[in-house]
Amino acid sequence: MRKLLLLFFASFSFLWSYDFSYCQKHYHEIAQKFDKKNFSTPVFYKGKTYFILYSQTPLKNKKILRHDPFVGLYLIAPQKEVRGFVLRSVDEIAKELQVSIIGPDFLIKTQILQNQRGFLDFAKLKIKAPSPNLVISNICYQIYGITTQEGGFITKPYIERFLSQEKPYYGDIGVRTQGNIVLQIDPFFPNNPFLPDDKILKIQNKIARKSLNVEWVISNLKEGERVRVLVERKIDKKTITKELSVVARARYGGFLLQDSFLESQKIGIDKNLKITKGNDLLKNGLENLQAGDRILWIARVNPLDLKGDVFDNLREVLMRAYLRYGYLEFLVNRNGFQFFTKVYPRGQ
Length: 348
Prior knowledge:
With 348 residues, the chain is an alpha+beta fold. The protein folds into 3 domains: 2-164, no CATH class; 171-250, Pdz3 Domain; 263-343, Roll (Pdz3 Domain). The chain is 18% helix and 34% strand. The protein has helices spanning 2-16, 21-30, 92-96, 156-164, 214-219, 310-325, and strands spanning 32-33, 39-45, 48-54, 64-68, 73-76, 85-87, 98-102, 107-114, 124-125, 135-137, 142-143, 145-147, 153-155, 171-172, 175-178, 181-185, 199-203, 206-207, 226-235, 238-247, 249-250, 268-269, 275-277, 294-298, 328-334, 337-343. The strands form 7 sheets. Strands 1, 2, 3, 4, 5, 6 and 11 form a 7-stranded mixed sheet that branches. A 6-stranded antiparallel sheet has the order 9-8-7-10-12-13. The chain has a 4-stranded antiparallel sheet with strand order 18-17-19-20. A hairpin with a 5-residue loop joins strand 12 and strand 13 (153-155). The relative contact order is 0.09. This is Periplasmic protein. InterPro entries: DUF7488, PDZ. Residues 182-241 form the PDZ domain. Residues 16-166 form the DUF7488 domain.
């Protein structure tokens, strides 16, 4: 049956592969100009048309109704009444078909190579999209997604997740992962049971196979939800499986947003480790930090001396110091005066 479907769609695509000009004409009729560079794309979702736009850098415009700063999606006020594109899922059949990158000035034939694998790990095309906010289609009234600055595109589940929320929300269980491997744990996350290098096997009985996007599952956990996680952990050269229990909370940083682990404490910090916002309501030691202070080191390690992204290094230093000592010791410079302060992420 699958082969018959594939043959049908491939034949359909072949018949029309020579000319997508009608699809471009349809795009011009329903897309809405946002600024000099971008058009917003109308998509049909739950009986209504929504105009959406993607930007990796923050935008300011009176046409914006709301946006998700984690992933750069914007909802734009409609200025015309049209029926939007129907979103199609990227399945194995879709990867066999010829598709077109369609926009006001572009009509490029290509092929889908890979589905979207994460919030910033976009679907990939054989020929990269030349600019964001173009559509990927092989049938004029339906699209597989909208393109990004990186040349890939955002797919149906991620667009519909954005449209389904009144305000952006992402679940958190106190870890940063690569695939199903825990890379870092958040020392400020209450009752965090994880350790670095834990291998996540199940989340709420969902098996963490390649087909299961761990990042997606965690992000969709409800705030306050009790979550059971089965992990594989190495202890003294032995590998054990262990079921952990953790309460999901809202995520404060990550994806396109800065992620230092301090965001949940409402502490602002820049790439030079200068405090941009303090929080004197805390009672864990961080209340001693004030705007203008500069962190010189944590547990005698300066994240600025390490290679790579400064915020990734800061998370790593915070985690390693907490796991080793149970607290964090900061050396801080305030207007030339240096002082030590101890921080107890989970209280004394």
